[in-house]
Amino acid sequence: MNIEESPELRATELGAGVIKRSTTLADGRDLIYYDDPGTTLGAERAVDARTLDPRPDTATMRLDILTGDWITVAANRQNRVMMPGADADPLAPQTPTNPSEVPSLYDVAVFENRSPAFGPALTEALGTAPAASNPPRGLDDLDALGLGRTRTSVGRCEVVCFSPDHSGSFGTQSVTRARTVIEAWADRTAALSQLPGIQQIFPFENRGEAIGVTLPHPHGQIYSYPYITPRTQRLLESIDRTAPDLFQRILEFEQGSERIVLQGEHWTAFVPFAARWPVEVHLMPNRHVADFAETTEAERDELAPLYLRLLRGVDALYETPTPYIAAWHQAPVNVARDSVRLHLELTSPRRGADKLKFLAGSEAAMWAWTAEIPPEQSAARIREAIARAEEASA
Fold first, then answer.
1. Which of 128, 331, 336, 339 could form a disulfide with 28 if both were Cys (CB 3.0 to 4.6 A apart)?
2. Domains of the chain
3. Which positions are annotated as active-site residues?
């Protein structure tokens, strides 16, 4: 394959000295580079010279009338790449022998997923995206119950590459790189919130084969939904039944407990009072912030090292890395902005060095949970693991 050099891309300076450079891939999907402050990379980026198949039709959602949940049916995701070697890593910078998704060497890169669960609503990107045939018609439309209801799965799925390296995770990055990723999360949250029909934006990282990861490359994703997710709808019901300042009450309740694992000027990490998972930690800003786009420079600066301390501590629980889901819950785009607070829910099914918690009958079928590890005990173990990790790196 030929790798052609492109002209210098228009640069936008973001917080902390991060530079944003936007371009497109060969099939019209967006690609955004986020350069570290003081990066050694030049301003130019290679052109994506691949010949790609047309973008797939946007997937379809079907309504489960028993629960009111919308289920996306995305057949294009069935044949995703599974645990490739470094010479075929689709998230690594392109080489003459590896026609990957990112044409140039990068610090952090974000691009539209090639096999998305949620896709474009209308023809976008110079006419390269198929038009949705049956898009959602707003929240009232999606709330209506009926047999056989379908809608096009309108939204957006993006991949966030934390590093050009083939293996690793968020927790293996430097503080500078973590800060760049946080800036990218904030920038993408702001941009995706402006897309028509988007109701909620969800940054997350899956880590480990036990979670179902298909690529070892250090990366996360951002899903932009056309509805408010079932989990957040349950949260909104709880807020309605208690008080609009529920998150502040939770924070003050946990800060007075023995379940705190880390605390800074702007952020607090704790094992929640009713933790479900063997490893479960919530990380919350100390003031009300609806999403990453609303965080201040100081909050982002503190989050980078504090979040790394948490992830490295979780990895130090056992001799091998801990599988986890790092789920950043944000307020919906258009409702409950003053009551739903940005927060991380970090969960792992690992209940021992060689044991996993599997969701079987009661939990999977009836959503009725049993926790094997008391939250207070879990918090003490995580605090000890954080201390071990910091001592080992000193």
1. 128
2. 4-227 (3.30.428.10), 232-393 (3.30.428.10)
3. 219
